[in-house]
Queue: 4 jobs
Job 1
Amino acid sequence: MRQSDPQEVTVPKSYPHSVRRQISHCLRAGDAVADIASETGISPATLFRWKDQALIDAGVRGGVPSVESDELASARSRIAALEAELALTRDACALFDEQSVMPPKGRSRSSKD
């Protein structure tokens, strides 16, 4: 038996939208989750989540439709990018504020030649 490494991180597997859409359609049509799980190798927990979301998208159950959650995820990603850009801008401004402009040696800024 393999022991898990405490530093090891498990990343959820990602599936194309077309696959998810096709399987969700089969689930809504009445195919058993266990059958689809054994055919595709996708975990039953994932399939149940997809089925629940398909029912929400169809208006059968209450919840947030996929379109709205996709828009929300996109907005959150954009906000994170803008906040990172703002932080860089603030750091650059702070750096320039700390630097003082020194006149060239031997000349004062107020004298004109």
Job 2
Amino acid sequence: MQVRHSIRFTAALMTLASVSASAFADQWSDMQQRKELRCATFADVPPFAAPDPKTREMVGFDVDMCNALAKHLGLKASVTPVSVEARVPEVKTGRVDVTVANLAYTLGRAEQIQFSHPYYLAKEMLAVKASDAGTKKADFKGKRIASTKGSTSELSIKLNGSEPVTFQDTGSVYMAVQQNKALGMVANTMTITKLVAQSKTGGAVEMKMIQEPMAFQPIGVGMKKDEPQLLAKVNDALLALDKSGEINRIWDKWLGPNTEFKMTRDEKVVPLSELKFDPLP
């Protein structure tokens, strides 16, 4: 009997040790052992992340950010394309280490995952047909407006008192306006700028961008909650990449003055607490 109790006691100790080891294990240590940064990006939202037509490899601003982040951390980037609505669940469940996919800080998302320092500030913009008489977002209250499902674009439509019509990808959102399924569409500034320009060619219905933003939001790297070491490492990396000018170089390559978007990045990487903005719910 004494031997049997001893075996049981030893087994219990081993189980406790295993649980304790798991409790002290952290994602950063796992990443170091794997020598890999598993990074979620958009599946097909240029210029952030999309398959290259020739090589079929993922390319874009977010892909380059993943690679730069991984390199600074001494790891190799592994890019996983995900849908707009999967950006938070993928990192929340640990299937990826980080999400770098134009991920805006919202109160709802912050309850599920943690955010890095923002690396740029984005605006959600509304585009409608050029013939529309509306000039400000209030003119579109109660109207059907299209966006990608599960995005901050959808949130901004709801906050404006408009009716969201959602789709899985930006191409479908654009076609909804072209085919009169929605009065307008909401997306980030870069996407709207590109699609408005696209609407002026190829026989499409011409569109215009409403100059008043639907929402203003900081964009950061999403990570699993309760991983303080990983958060600190990512924040330090973003600060270093910003100071070295690497983020600006990536920005200029995909979004800068010599691209079709002609956008200038003026902001610097700073803690979220230092920004003055009204977070989306």
Job 3
Amino acid sequence: MTNDLSDRTILLTGGTSGFGRVAAVDLAKRGATVAVVGRDESKGATLVERSSDLAGTIAFHQADLASQSTVRSLATTVKREYDQIDVLAHNAGLSAGSRRESLDGIEITLAVNHLGPYLLTYELLDHLRDAPDPRVVITASDIHRRATLDLDDLQLTDGYDSLEAYARSKLANIAFTVELDDRLPDDSAVTVNCVHPGFVPSTELFREASLPTRLLVRIAGLIPGVATSKQAAAERLQTLLVDPRYGSVSGQYVGKDGPADPASEATNQAVRQRLWEMSAELVGITSDWPAPSTT
């Protein structure tokens, strides 16, 4: 893996806590400029302050990725403040304990975990294309295997279950990865991959989940060999962000031992194309993207 990252600028959502925070610090230690996106301004300020003596730089951008207007404002800020982005890393995640909607009227787990990455990628893809090794990386999860995408009820209006909502959003992440890779022009240098970081019970991901789900997570974390440490998860994420192997591999779901086959629904062409079209409609953009590069 590349040790000197002084020429890399990495936009990392979900980088103020959990293994995202570990990854942000590790990348800055190796010289990278890391633009961390998070909701909590105090956590962001603390991260920046504690990282001031690292070889690289950590900057914080406050944003609620459930809000489409905020995602667009974030993209505008990024394009203004950074000449280019080398890596767009979608690591923010949410598991809501009960069904609620964003200000845009979208079920919150779908809004944060899937539509946020979908829209931010749309807004920043051209800014990414000029980088020498441009990458889009999404944090998915093996929990996607328990889900199906009910495209007639994508937002779980009929019988909400927090774990099902989260699993569906992770399935959507993988379907988006495969579909974006399929849509990128053959001569595009951009790679897009997603990673299963492992089961990391020490994160704040399930802070809003129901009591039974939180208890299940706690119990599972006590079983030897089941849990993944924040450091190990951060290293898996960083592998996709900067390892040369993933500069030429695209459209992959990557686990502990490398690329793996996801659930068949994630690669089903009809499902992923319909999800793409529905996602475009939900965020108010054309589904006919990405456009060919003009350079």
Job 4
Amino acid sequence: MVIVVSLSPELEVRLREKAAQQGQDVSFVATQLLEAVLEWEVQDSEAAIKGIQQGLEDFEMDRFRSFDDFADEQRRKYNLPADS
């Protein structure tokens, strides 16, 4: 299958540079990059769903804390000012 994609001149330069550094054909490198991004997207979605499911299970089992406790911890952790 042939798909035509228009790239900005800057992105084309970056892609060609990457292909040259790897000693590979530009089409091959573009295909590898697309495969990696698509796989990452699937894994990221699966991780998000798993995290949401875990959060719901924790909530149902009364394993949670108040938002105020969470906010206080984040303020201490990142040295943020307290709310006025």
